[in-house]
Amino acid sequence: MTAYPAASTENVQQAGHVLAVAASPGHAFSKEPQPGITLVAGLGVAGDGHAGSTVQHRSRVRRDPTQPNLRQVHLIHGELLDELAEKGFDIAPADLGENITTAGLDLLALPRGTRLAVGADAVVEITGLRNPCAQIDDFRQGLLKAVIGRDAAGRPVPKAGVMGIVLAGGAVRPGDAVVVTLRPGPHIALERV
């Protein structure tokens, strides 16, 4: 296993914590909340239907089953759930299919390649934005529109969380710290993966 050294303090940009964790063995839209999950380097969440070194999402498997799985772990900022509640949507952690719900982190503003130290041992590298699909409206009518924001130029920006790969495995539980470390620049904005 590759060791990932602790970040120097100048690269640590923010710290938050884990609100909830989830995993499900199947490919349902929502996941099941868990008391803890285990991240496995190069694969994702142990026992989760989306874990694997190659793509596991059905639509991507149909296109090319050999492509690397850049969506091993799905993270959503808990603040999105608060925002959706203000719009009349009752959404709980894991409802949108995320494995880790965070608090205190602006996940969407982080650049590609950002590393998240989660709990005592796990490290997740952010690969891009979750691309919400029509299934989200099947879950709650009108939710797709609610999770698509607009940037300063008016372009659509998905707000349904970020995706990542597991660099170092470990246990993750609610209450665990999440420390953000930026890689050396230049920084590349997140795109849909």
UniProtKB/TrEMBL annotation:
Superkingdom, natural source: Bacteria
Record-given protein name: MOSC domain-containing protein
MOSC domain boundaries: 32-181
UniProt cross-references to Gene3D superfamilies, sorted A to Z: PK beta-barrel domain-like
GO terms, molecular function: catalytic activity; molybdenum ion binding; pyridoxal phosphate binding
InterPro entries assigned to the protein according to its UniProt record, in alphabetical order: MoCF_Sase_C, MOSC_domain, Pyrv_Knase-like_insert_dom_sf
